[in-house]
Each structure stands twice: as C-alpha cells, then as structure tokens.
Specification:
Elements: E1 7-9, E2 12-13, E3 18-20, E4 23-25, E5 36-43, E6 50-56, E7 61-69, E8 75-84, E9 89-90, E10 96-97, E11 109-115, E12 120-125, E13 129-134, E14 142-146, E15 154-157, E16 162-165, E17 180-187, E18 193-199, E19 204-209, E20 218-225, E21 240-243, E22 255-260, E23 279-284, H1 285-291
Parallel strand pairs: 1-20
Antiparallel strand pairs: 2-23, 3-4, 5-6, 6-7, 7-8, 9-10, 11-12, 12-13, 13-14, 15-16, 17-18, 18-19, 19-20, 21-22, 22-23
C-alpha cells in the first residue's frame, strides 16, 4: 500500500444543450441555477439500454434516463427513475449532522462513474464521501468512504460567506478531503482494476479495489506533481479519466488525464485579473502504477 502523498509527474498539458430535470434548454447564464451537474453514461447489459445518470447542482437527487436515437440523427431520453441521497446523517454520538452550506443548498454530487462489468455506480457527494450503488438505482446506496470533515460541526456566516468549523469529533475518514470530485475506473483485461477518486481538499487521488465482493478495499494513493519549474502538477482537480491501452510512444502504458483547477501561472500572460487559468495534465499510467504500487 502506498502513501497518499506519493507523487507522479505530469507529462503535458493541453453552444451545447443541457438536461435540467425533465427538459432540455439552450445554453444561457446558469451561475445560480440548480442545473444538471454530474454525468455518467453506460450500457446496461441486462436490458441492452444506453443509459445516463445525472446529478443536480445543490441537490442530492440522482436521475437515471434511457438514451434513445431519433430518426433525424439526434438523441432523446426517457426518465426511468430517481434516487435521493441523504442530506443529513446520524452520528455515533446520537447527534444529527449536515455539512455546512449556504441556506437552501444541499450536499451535491458531481463525480460519477459506472463499472460496466457489475452495473455498479460510484458517486462522489462532495462534502460527504463516495457512494456505491446499483447503477439502475434500485437498491440502497452504501457509503464506501467518508471525507475527513464528515461530522465536523460548522456555522455559515452570511457576512463572509464562509463556514466556521468547530471541533472535529473524529467520525470522518482518513483518505479523502472535501470535496470528493472526479471518479474514474482503471479496468484491467483480467477483470481486476481500481476506482480512482479525486480528493480535492488535499490534491491527491485515493485508489480502491474494483472488486465489490471485497468491499472496494483501499489500495493506496498518489498526487500529480510538477514535471518541471514551468509545468506544475494538478491542484483542485474536478475530473479525471483513465485509458488503459497504449497511447503511442509518449504514453506506452496507457494514460491518466486529470483536470488542473489551479494552473501556474494563475493567469495567462497579459490577462491578469481575468478568469484564473485551468488545464489538463497527461500522466503515463505506468508511472501511476509504480507510484501507487499497483
């Protein structure tokens, strides 16, 4: 098992419709709207359907929809069912806890991925942890791992728009720091593999065994560090994906792509004060396997 701080180096950087509830709208300003937020697609082997799972901003609801082609070459959908994850939790001391947020906001899900071999959905509820459930949303979800901040009382200050945390009662996990963000699946040809979870709060990734029968045992972790003084690592990562196949001479062992939410330099040359720069980092999958001792 590797240390979560094990570092791997990154190698290089490099008007849509959206689904909201039961309707599709053209793009327009959405800064404060409770729009669709996370998305995962998969093909259900038992039904042959092409499905999508969608989460909603500032809400705990997940929706399962069937994707259907139309005669004119577009795609429509049919809502199958929804599932609401918890927004409050009973702690071992008998208290009820909810993560601190602005009034009216609930702990949302963003990162999601489906294991097609087992029909298992993994969903990252940002301030809570990583959930495991059937991808058809027909069974009770299991909280696979909690964030370190789970159970910590906090009070929202409207003046500063910040949460002031109290004493940590020690009910949280040891591997994830809020927010839980991007989830991706490293699939091996023999059926083995790993779930990667972005731990945004400490800029690391946690790895879990793909095997549900072994309760997705924790296998280690890593961080994507700087490749050079001018090419930084990945921080505040919102998403990632794994391609376990040779990708040319640069990435002969496969490829991990991670979003870097805090690029260096922070602003493009000559654009100080504009939106902070973000980017993507490409990492050879062999380096990840070596660093995490997979």
């Amino acid at each position: 098992m590797s240390d979560p701080a094990t570092t791997v180096r990154d190698e290089r950087q490099s008007a849509s419709d959206r689904l909201v509830g039961a309707h599709v709208y053209r793009s327009r300003p959405v800064a404060r709207e409770r729009t669709s937020y996370g998305l995962a697609t998969w093909q259900d082997k038992t039904t042959g359907r092409s499905d999508a799972l969608i989460s909603r901003r500032e809400r705990t609801r997940l929706a399962l929809v069937e994707l259907k082609p139309t005669a004119n070459g577009t795609v429509t959908y049919h809502k199958v069912r929804t599932l609401d994850l918890p927004s409050s939790f009973r702690l071992p001391n008998g208290a009820t806890w909810s993560p601190c947020a602005e009034p009216g906001e609930l702990p949302q899900v963003e990162g999601m991925v489906v294991d097609p071999a087992t029909g298992t959905l993994y969903a990252g509820q940002e301030d809570i942890g990583t959930w495991r459930m059937r991808a058809d949303l027909t069974a009770k979800p299991v909280l696979l791992d909690k964030v370190r901040q789970y159970g910590v009382p906090a009070v929202y200050d409207e003046a500063t728009e910040e949460c002031t945390a109290g004493a940590d009662p020690g009910y949280g996990g040891a591997r994830l720091s809020a927010d839980v963000e991007g989830l991706t699946l490293f699939q091996e040809p023999d059926g083995d593999g790993y779930l990667f979870a972005s731990s945004q709060g400490d800029n690391t990734f946690a790895l879990y065994d793909r095997e549900v029968g072994e309760d997705n045992e924790y296998e280690g972790g890593f961080r994507v560090g700087a490749a050079s003084p001018t090419l930084d690592g990945a921080e505040e990562c919102d998403g990632a994906t794994v391609l376990n196949a040779p990708m040319g001479s640069r990435f002969p062992n496969g490829l991990l792509v991670v979003q870097d939410g805090h690029e260096t330099p922070e602003f493009p040359p000559g654009q100080a004060g504009a939106h902070a720069a973000t980017g993507f980092k490409f990492v050879d999958l062999g380096d990840v396997a070596d660093a995490a001792d997979l």
